[in-house]
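Students often ask why we bother encoding 3D structure as a string. The short answer is that it lets us treat folding as translation between two languages. Here is a chain of 113 residues written in the first language.
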Amino acid sequence: MPQAVEAGGWIFVSALFGAAPADRDIPDDATAEAEQLFDNLEAILDAAGARLDQVVRVGVVMRHLQRDRPAFNEVWVRRFGDHRPARSAIESSDFGRPGENARYMVEASAFRG
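And here it is in the second language, the structure alphabet:
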């Protein structure tokens, strides 16, 4: 299953986690996991010829929204800078692979134009 699909200048990234690409490990720290997630998103966008400032919408699923949102938001601001894509965030305790225990899952849409 591809992590991204292109259609008419749009790039759709689905079910993206903060797992290290080499070993699929999820960092123990919420901030480190969010940083890894953004590293993964940038790598996928780069492979499709896009950048973070071309992201127009992001959907975020968090295992513990109130606990982990502050760490995620800090990384969000640092990585997106002044660019502010539309965003929604929901809490769900049931996503990802069994035993993986990811805090975050992201779906993003970017437009290369």
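Translate back mentally: The first strand starts at residue 4 and ends at 7. Keep this in mind for the problem set.
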